[in-house]
Amino acid sequence: MQPTTDADVIVVGAGLAGLVATAELLDAGRSVILVEQEGEASLGGQAWWSFGGLFMVNTPEQRRLRIKDSVDLAWQDWQGTAGFDRPEDFWPRRWAEAYVNFAAGEKRAWLHGMGHRIFPVVGWAERGGYGATGPGNSVPRFHITWGTGPGVTAPFEAKVRDGVARGLVRLAFRHRMEDLLVTNGVVTGVRGSVLEPTTAARGTVTTRTPVRDFQFSAGAVVVTTGGIGGDHALVRAAWPERLGTAPEKMLSGVPEHVDGSGIAASAVAGGRIINPDRMWHYVEGIKNWNPVWANHGIRILPGPSSLWLDATGNRLPVPLFPGFDTLGTLEHLRTTGHDYSWFVLNTAIIRKEFALSGSEQNPDLTGKSVRDVLGRATSGVPGPVQAFLDHGEDFISAGTLEELVAGMNELAKTSSEGAAPVLSAEAVRREVEARDREIANPFSKDSQVTAIRGARSYLGDRLIRTAAPRPILAPKDGPLIAVRLSVLTRKTLGGLETDLDSRVLGAGGEPVPGLFAAGEAAGFGGGGMHGYRSLEGTFLGGCLFSGRSAGRAAGR
């Protein structure tokens, strides 16, 4: 006689991967309990906050912009970026290859069939700047969702809520999973604490006061609980030597409840964690002047024209230009002994090139307003960026370079790391004027100037992302601007090792019966399909792909 279960499958975590897995289970006719420690306002998890960028290959949007892409080129870029070099990379590499083919195949049509739409201009993220087989995207592949993060999550949330209406899904909010139930070596359910109810807004801190225990049983469990980016102690503990020492001061790109608890519980149940030292943090973080969670940071999505200086005033080396190599820049900046760096630019550059990551920082795209999007491309500084200029503690404006550097030195004193280096206005002027001289003629030995001109050969960059190459000190393009940049925690690239059916594997490489994992908890597939670096647009995509795989496999 079969034991009684509460549902066919339990999905733990109501972020994007959990919603996708649940939607796939519903398509298979399965009953699901969706367990989530936060309140209902947090449905959709981190994906809801995102810019909605998706990595796709050889799409109609690319072809309309005369971008020639292919699976072979994308796979070449992925391998050069990932740098797979460990025995543990067997499944991550297989996941990566499968994902690239998915991104070049049914991904767009699958999403389109659910109502997903794409902004027509394709972005060029992580441009690399090394050789053909080095890291970076050879062509623009960053497809922005019309509706940003909420536009990505909405089709799956709708399917889940329809499942609730049909009696196939139970939404168990404020249920914090603490342990997986294991019976005779098979994962058969979850248990934990029911937390007191909350009406807290999405992303804000909630209480951890338990009111009772709970226990659910099922034929399988899918863990989609995210990574460790909200717990800086865990980030520092996993920080690899190759990236230098971890910063004393970091901003948080995710709320505090992103704490890796699901990964830890799965390990206790027999799952194997691989590549825990691989992580993805941004170096263009700014403190949110209107924070949602503690230490809330926002990432600048920069165009290629800002002059990037380290804390001592030295220009960053080639090819560490804005938007070219996130992790390479992080590694270099950790050698400087300081936790911050600077963009130096002017109003003309910020007007054209600054975007801010996140659905709430892009109301035009999030609200699907064609008029407001056209206004962004044709008017002054975008409203959300202007708000940071007006209120953000990391922004300085000045009429002269000497005044700008004086403001930078005053701001540097607020760093928590102790005595800050004092910038020399004369030295900063030398860097800026040297750069400006290279702009003044059609020839240049400056690689960044060459990169700016190369970017503007792409229509999408010329229209909305890259300012015409002009001197930073051009009076009519002022005032001058400096932005203090900090490390912003974001993604865990390693995680639970899984096969292509998202089954969690044990120490000997065998599946842990009844246990599946997807999303960031599984390193977006296999325990780290990105390897050491990301090509961007692949975190949401990894949640979609691995959530789909987990839901389909668990449904079988």
TrEMBL record:
<keyword id="KW-0285">Flavoprotein</keyword>
<dbReference type="InterPro" id="IPR014614">
    <property type="entry name" value="KsdD_DH"/>
</dbReference>
<dbReference type="InterPro" id="IPR003953">
    <property type="entry name" value="FAD-dep_OxRdtase_2_FAD-bd"/>
</dbReference>
<feature type="domain" description="FAD-dependent oxidoreductase 2 FAD-binding">
    <location>
        <begin position="8"/>
        <end position="540"/>
    </location>
</feature>
<protein>
    <submittedName>
        <fullName>FAD-binding dehydrogenase</fullName>
    </submittedName>
</protein>
<dbReference type="InterPro" id="IPR027477">
    <property type="entry name" value="Succ_DH/fumarate_Rdtase_cat_sf"/>
</dbReference>
<dbReference type="InterPro" id="IPR036188">
    <property type="entry name" value="FAD/NAD-bd_sf"/>
</dbReference>
<dbReference type="Pfam" id="PF00890">
    <property type="entry name" value="FAD_binding_2"/>
</dbReference>
<keyword id="KW-0560">Oxidoreductase</keyword>
<dbReference type="GO" id="GO:0033765">
    <property type="term" value="F:steroid dehydrogenase activity, acting on the CH-CH group of donors"/>
</dbReference>
